[in-house]
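Reagents: none. Just compute today. Dihydrolipoyl dehydrogenase.
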Amino acid sequence: MSKQFDVVVIGGGPGGYIAAIRAAQLGFNVACIDEWKNANGGPALGGTCTNVGCIPSKALLQSSEHFDHASHHFAEHGIEVKGLGLDVAKMLGRKDTVVKQNNDGIVYLFKKNKVTFFHGRGSFAATRDGLYDIQVTGAAEETISGKHIIVATGSSARALPGTPFDEENILSNDGALRIGAVPKKLGLIGSGVIGLEMGSVWRRLGAEVTVLEGLPTFLGAVDQQIAKEAKKAFDKQGLKIALGVKVGEVKNGKKGVSVAYTDAKGEAQTLEVDKLIISIGRVANTQGLNPEAVGLKLDERGAVVVDDECKASLPNVWAIGDVVRGPMLAHKAEEEGVAVAERIAGQHGHVNFNTIPWVIYTNPEIAWVGQTEEQLKAAGRAYKAGTFPFMANGRARALGDTTGMVKMLADATTDEILGVHIVGPMASELIAECVVAMEFRASSEDIARICHAHPSLSEATKEAALAVDKRTLNF
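Predicted 3D structure written out:
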């Protein structure tokens, strides 16, 4: 007889492991299945985010930022550096240590919360007596059963048609995190979040980086005033960004990669690089899930079809994170994981898509929440806008990083905050205040009236709120 659980979670990424822990906290007998392996073949919980995404990329971004500061910015602080060197292997080793710490942390959390872990691939096998049989394929094959199933299998990098990843020359996010030496020339197809972050890492370390983007605008999902400010900064840093291109044949050879493309003027061009990162989005990871065995419905993109509460097409089957509709963000998956566990318990889980923050960890950082100015215009909504530049912020001057601004958008009549957009230092942290404000339907006046510590970067948020009413104090 198979082991039986109240809740079985397939996938141990940010959505899956959080769902499992929350369900266990609510008193359910919970199992989580995940097949990710570390270098020794052991479990590596945390999914794409922990293993080849959010966590390792931030580790490399931090290391490369230190190198960039030592190379170009320490002198202005009166700090002299002689004989500066770069040990890429050690840098990658530190990144791997950070990843392992996160992997091990999740293993500890499972033990603490009494979540039963199965190391292998989970797939649907059958339904019987109100339960779902889940086949676990791994070192030891077995079948377990669960009353509620949460699918949290994440997403995979989308490859260019006819150009598979070899993770040596043509790289997904996985290979981009394992480049063993600084390439002389690095190419990027797509100015997606992962691509820009990895491009930033290797540019700081000395690579000549060229980005080929098919869209005519840079960062089309970002408020365009903010995107233009970011592009100015990237141009100044030497990041080459070509917009409106049409990529043709990609040739992968022993000496590197050749990309034929047509530029925005319609002229044929060729980009020769040592390494090429493809960053053109991600696809739902349902391969091997065997949805046919139970009749689970997928959409035309291969994602699990769910309603607003993450309920799938079958009773007691749920799906969360990258494998369903909505933004492919780790924190969105976490929120859905908590919400589903609470819904299973008869509670009212809450996920507000309009207050999910977005962050690009480049330098300058880019972060936003809510609607852009372009979206408000398209919707015909009357609004007021206020901006404040970091060049007028005392803390930013002291940091030596005055690039960018905070921009706040509020309803013209009610003053409710509709969106906040930041490009500049620590934007990833500054956006949190704005998320809280929007979740409580605050007005720009509320932010303007709150006392912010001086000197701090957060004063730029207060000043942007003041600017909505055209009464900034420091600009």
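The longest strand covers residues 116-128.
Action item: order primers for follow-up constructs.
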